[in-house]
Amino acid sequence: MGGLYAVGDIHGHVDQLVGLLFQVGLVDADGAWSGRESTLCMTGDLVDRGPDGVGAIELVMRLQSEALKAGGQVACVAGNHDLIMLLAQRFPKQKNRQGTSYYKIWQRNGGRETDLELLTDTHIEWLRRLPVMLLVRDRLLIHADSLLYHRYGRSIDEVNTRIGDIIARDDLDGWDILMDEFATREAFIQRPGGVRVARSFLERYGGTQILHGHTPISAVTGRQPAEVNEPLIYADGLVVNLDGGMYLGAPGFIHRLE
Ligand SMILES: [Mn+2]
Fold first, then answer.
1. H or E stretch including 135?
2. Taking the domain 4-256, which CATH number applies?
């Protein structure tokens, strides 16, 4: 079995990601998967706020297929930015319960017009099928440090199926609720309660450690984004925040778990 690696929210920073992957040997000088049987976990938020969201989608799609052929894996969950871009693409004029159009919400959240122009049906289908939760080896991979997942089920399959249904059926009420839920964060960080919350989350969904993005580490620690070069491991080691804050100008990092 190869190594286990994880990276946080990319937000369109494709060149930076390729550079980081090259440093740890997961891609070669041409950017092709060279990680053999290794596994790379990604927390989602591939798009928005950065230069090349569609390029990030294409990179992850390609690395998934190259890794698979090599006996490795690139596991990626959907982040709220990936989902809101889907909404803006499909229902730009539709308004949420607060009366704001999805297009405007997406734009306010850092949506890039060029990404929407470059987005193809293949990208859209791939995004629509992204899971929101995965067990990778014994790590529980999610996007948000939030208990929103509880609302959708008691198992990984149930959560992925219920959220997948909302997306597949274009259930706009369901979408509204999902987007509101994705605005929450920091569920595992309170002291001392966070440890207990993390433990019960892991008991419910499985795994020994939660991997998440969504909340830049600099926002939690008060450090400068540019200084963040490692994950924030907290809640007695039960939770790993991988969001280096690339969209804030941080260098980003790849965390080796095994
Ligand atoms: Mn993010």
1. strand 133-136
2. 3.60.21.10
